[in-house]
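I am writing to request your help with a piece of structural work I have in hand. Thank you for your consideration; the sequence and its tokens are set out here:
=====
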Amino acid sequence: MSGYQGMRWFKCDLQVQTPEDGRHWNPEDPLRLGAPRPEQDLQEKARQYLRRCHEVGLEVIGVTDHNFCGHRQPRERFLAHLIEQNGTVAREFGREPLWIFPGFEVDIGYHVLCLFPLIKKSAELDRICDVLTKLGLEPGARFEGDRPADLRWDGSYVALSAILRIVQKEAGGIVIAAHAFADDGIAEKDGRHAGDYRNEDLLCVEVTKFPLGEREKAVLEANAGVWKRSRPPAYIMSSDAKSTLKDEDGKPKPNSLGYRATWIKMSEPSIEALRQAFLDSSSRIRLETEDPRIVRHQRIASLLVQDVAFLEDQEVLFSPHLNCLIGGRGSGKSSLFEYIRFAVRKEVETAAQAQIGRIKATLKADSLLRLSWREQDQPQGDVHLNDVFEFRPVNARAQVVSRGVVDPATVFANLDVQIFSQGQITEIARRSSFLLPLVDGLVGPELRLLKQKEAEVREVIEKLQQERRTLERLEAERKALEQEAEDLDRRWQAQSSVQEEQRRHRAAQESARYLEDLAAKTEAIARGLTRQADDLAQSYSPLGSVVKNWPESPFFESLDSAVENAQEELANEIRRASDRFNRRVKGLTVESLEWQKVQGSIQAATDGFLTACAEQGLRPDEVDQILQVDLARKAKLFELERKRDQVAVVRKSALDYEPRLAELYGIWKEQTELRRRRIQKILEGAAIPKVPEGRPSLEVQIEYSGERDHFFREWGELAPDARTRLGKVWEDLGFEAFSGFANSSLGSPWTVVEGWLGGEAPPILRQPDLMQAFREHISRIRETWERKTLVRVQDSIDLVLYREDGSVAGSLSKSQLSEGQRNTAVLSLLLASGTGPMLIDQPEDELDSNFISQQLVPLLREIKNQRQVILVTHNPNLPVNADAELVYALKAKAVDGGPVRGVVEAQGGLDRDGVKSAVLDIMEGSEQAFRKRREKYHF
């Protein structure tokens, strides 16, 4: 990252020989030096050597030719040309120049490597030559032929303590015991050099294989015996390169450049950076072959701040790992922290509203906050997925400016970042209602999928509830129709004795009406035809005298007379046709031979009906009413059949209600089990401290739908008037429902109440009229009640903390934990879970002091490679002992006579002098204050 000042991983090979070491350099290597040694040849071979370093990805090398070099003149030394050609070759590869630590390897009964500060000019190599002279090897006595001379004082090997004093303390270099576990190494099997190994000033040894063998582990982890040290040395791997040879696949051959390497984390390579890395090897040294620079988690890459009230314009380039913002009061560190919140749209945290409001007031109309977000790196190549977010007060909310997005709210909602302002951890730990969303945030996408499924099933059930209400309405309507039809049928059946006569009478009446209608229709047709003939005869208007003026007037006069005659003939023809139609119909009816017989039958049916009515004591008009009843009965039966069909359809759909409800309960229980599994996995991880039995020191107890306060809030919303008898016992009924659920395997507390409605009444409701009042109340609020039965009573969350000896320190629910202990439990859980960035403002304010050093620091060291952590802190334990990759130190001061603003005093890792000074001044109260405390406590 351009301009990044914090620590990063460098690929290092701290034991490489060059062709200068002719005794050990592979004779088959083309870079082998001959005699004489033309400078042009040295330069070209130096370039080839450097090219090979870049090809194998090295960034840092330690040149450790045996006994340095036998040549007095700098231009004759191969190392001098490596230094001079470094920049030129790096430009060929588009890479930064190598960091080259000059040094040498000497034999003091075993081999040690001596590395010295980086140099920029080849003439400075004389300083290293002088150190070797001081150790007892004059330039002319370093080689016997081409064999390096042993390092002796008065015929004896030089003591390691002398090497450490001269190289590390006096010359500012560093010493590494080479190939420590070989037969001629410092940790060889017979233990002859165990005394030297225990020298605490020896900070590092070299191993030749990884993972370590059993013997290497036993020595390095020894807590007793001849190999025991108060602090084990760091261990690295190096190629012990003696060639640039490679195999047919281009991979380094054994003991050639790049054959083995070590990843070391530094701000930039220096002896001090190596020293700190060796002192904190668990954080800063990796021997794995996988490139640790590939970051597998999301992180905030940078934050640009412009034109704000109390901070100088600046851009913070964050480490993907542990970042600490430090500074005195008013320096703006908390402002920087909260600006990140605005830039990722996380400013809605209720527990931080006061702090958010104060910080938002520091923004002006033209202020700009620009945050660069980076997704996890891709394993293949240096591929990054970036987003850029900008917050400007005029826009109210942050926007995505790096790409076009359909729904910015979704982009920000999916950012896996947790931000905790001052006091938020305490607020969460103090209120159990905050624990569930906290746990849900830790469970992640799987829970979101289950909640989505829950919402879908709930929608289906809500529709089924509506259908059940419809079914009840249809059933009631069906029953009413059945009763009405039964009553009509009963009335009809009561008059069955005249039904047959009435039917014949009705048929006779209908036949008589038909004949009457036919006669009337025939007469109407005849009248209509006659009227049409009259109209036709009168409608023609002759041309008269007007035709005399037309051309060919005789033709038109003749035509006019002929048409008039034709129309008259048509009218007469219509009259004759009308007469024929009328006579034909009369011949078929009144003049027919059957006419009298038909009329007699009609009259007989009528007389028979009237006689039957007289015999039953009925008037004819009452029989008409019975006929209407029959018609109504038939219509009602038809309607009833249709209603039964509707009921059948809705009932079939409503049958899905119970299975769907069971499915919803199953989803709820699956959510609880997912929470338990996920949290247990977090607790069993390496980040959570363990008690002697191996159990986690923190236990999270999750009870299905056990959040009593949540249930009573929902139950209270259903309460009737408190002045009624039912209202006075409503809370007691809630206790009955919740306790009944707790002692059952039911899916919800609401199921208990549904059982009451079905007849399983608790003792309270067995009082006279109370059950009736209860049922009537639920019936009145039916739809509200049904919606309430789909409310998921929240899981209850309890935290139990264990002491180091495994005994129970207390639980959150029983109020047995101090505020610091509660916060400790919550923060441990937060830090140990997830991979997204976590930001905490001054966590030390909310924690027990012993937790910071005993648990928080180890926890930060454990998780910082799996997630980004950004802390605002005043406690030196956090940046120093947790080994922050970036310390960003702010100071409040007036710039160029202007107002006091927060400016950057120093930034980077603790291997930068400016950062160390800032930590001492800001967090320790100055180096002198730290020294006084150290003297007082006998550090």
